[in-house]
Structures are given as structure tokens and as C-alpha cells.
UniProtKB/TrEMBL annotation:
GO cellular component terms attached to this protein's record: membrane
InterPro entries referenced in this protein's UniProt entry, alphabetically: EmrE-like, WAT1-related
Record lineage: Eukaryota, Viridiplantae, Streptophyta, Embryophyta, Tracheophyta
Membrane topology: Multi-pass membrane protein
Alphabetically ordered keywords of this record: Membrane, Transmembrane, Transmembrane helix
Record-level Gene Ontology MF annotations: transmembrane transporter activity
Protein's cellular compartments: Membrane
UniProt keyword annotation of Magnesium present: no
Source organism, top-level taxon: Eukaryota
Species name: Artemisia annua
Stretches that traverse the bilayer: 32-52, 64-82, 94-112
Main location as per UniProt: membrane
Name assigned to this protein: WAT1-related protein
């Protein structure tokens, strides 16, 4: 019974956006196609650069960078004057402080060198009597 309810609800929800479009879409011209192509190339390159980043750096840096997206978005909004920096506003102070804290936290997580959790396997094997797989033990 639940299965049929989900089918009917998804059919009803799926039809509403199609029927509610009342405006006429603009014709597809070279400008629109070139913008779509440029966005696709930028998305593709960001994926490739993200995978290359993991190869040349630590996975910690990659996870820290993904958490910085809201901070970078706020910085870009300020640069392009989509956001105003009025420190009398609580929301602006919270965004500014959150951006500073997230960038500082990403630096700390990336640059912190703590104690080794897993020691090098070759150093622990060199102290054992049968270090190699084909080694023999003396009785």
C-alpha cells in the first residue's frame, strides 16, 4: 500500500512544475550556448583539479578545502559587491567571523603535524628475527 502511495505522490509532484510554467523561454542563441559550455568546462576542470590535488597533497587538505566553500562564497560576494560589510549588522559580523574561523581552522588542520598514528612498517619489521617472508629461523 505504501508503495502505491509513493508512486501516486511522485506522479502528482512531478506534474506540477510542468503545468505551472506559464512564461515563454527565450530562444537558444550563441550567447546562452557559450555560457553553458563555459560553465561545463569550469565544472570539469574543477573536478580534474580536485583529483589532482589529492594526488599531490594530503586527503586532509582536500576535505578542509571542501569545507571552505561558504567562506570563499562570502569573500567573492564581498569582492563583487553583492554583500556589504556593515559591521553594525549582526548577520554581517557572523558571516565575517565564520569566514575567519573556517579559514583559520582549515589552515590548522592542514598544517598541524601530530604524532604518528601508524608507524612505518619497515622499521618495525627490521627488529624482528624473520624480517623477510622467505627467512628462516634458527632453532
Amino acid at each position: 500500500m505504501v508503495h502505491y502511495k509513493h508512486i501516486m505522490r511522485s506522479r502528482n509532484i512531478g506534474q506540477n512544475p510542468v503545468h505551472s510554467i506559464s512564461r515563454v523561454l527565450p530562444p537558444v542563441n550563441f550567447s546562452i550556448v557559450s555560457k553553458i559550455f563555459l560553465l561545463a568546462i569550469m565544472g570539469f576542470m574543477s573536478q580534474i583539479l580536485g583529483y589532482t590535488e589529492i594526488i599531490y597533497s594530503s586527503p586532509t587538505l582536500s576535505s578542509a578545502i571542501s569545507n571552505l566553500v561558504p567562506g570563499f562564497t562570502f569573500i567573492l560576494a564581498v569582492i563583487f559587491r553583492m554583500e556589504t560589510l556593515s559591521f553594525s549588522n549582526k548577520g554581517t559580523r557572523a558571516k565575517f567571523l565564520g569566514t575567519i574561523v573556517s579559514i583559520t581552522g582549515a589552515f590548522i588542520v592542514t598544517l598541524y603535524k601530530g604524532p604518528k598514528v601508524i608507524q612505518n612498517l619497515s622499521s618495525s619489521r627490521s627488529h624482528s628475527p624473520s624480517a623477510s617472508l622467505g627467512g628462516t629461523q634458527d632453532n
